Amino acid sequence: MPIFQCQQCGCAENSALGWYNNRNKERLTVKEHLGKALCSACAPRKFPDGSPTKFNGKWHNSFERTFLPLNLFKTNEEGKLEHIETGEVGNVCYEKYKIESTITSKE
Predict the structure, then answer these.
(1) Alpha-carbon distance 19 to 13, whole Å?
(2) Domain ranges of the chain
(3) What is the reported pLDDT for 22?
(4) Most exposed: 35, 46, 77, 84, by fewest CB within 10 Å?
(5) pLDDT one-digit tens code per residue, 1-60
């Protein structure tokens, strides 16, 4: 599954676990989140009609939550995380750019 950077907190997320595939769907996304790729912790808790989404504001814990400098990464054509300026791809992004955070993977 493609990896993307959350546009709110900057963490790396799997598109199947966060708010990536629905980000541009107006019928599923409230206006304030429209167009934004968001991780499971930042994803909207409710659909525009008020019904709940599967997200509860907490990290899913399927893998470690890794924070990267915000807005410096994109998902490339292969679905891998890529540093916009250098073109570095995959694990090197985590190893080189990881930000130590006070947020734990349990959140």
Answers:
(1) 9
(2) 1-107
(3) 93
(4) 77
(5) 789 999 999 999 999 999 999 999 999 999 999 999 999 999 999 999 999 999 999 999
- Identity of the residue numbered 22: N
The reported pLDDT for the residue numbered 99 is 87
Angle among Cα 55, 27, 57 to the nearest 5 degrees reads 15
Burial class from Cβ neighbours inside 10 Å (0-12, 13-18, 19+) for residue 104 reads: exposed
Using CA of residue 87, residue 85, residue 79, residue 54, what is the dihedral sign? positive
Report d(CA 5, CA 1) in Å as an integer: 13
Q: Quick one: DSSP state of residue 38?
A: B
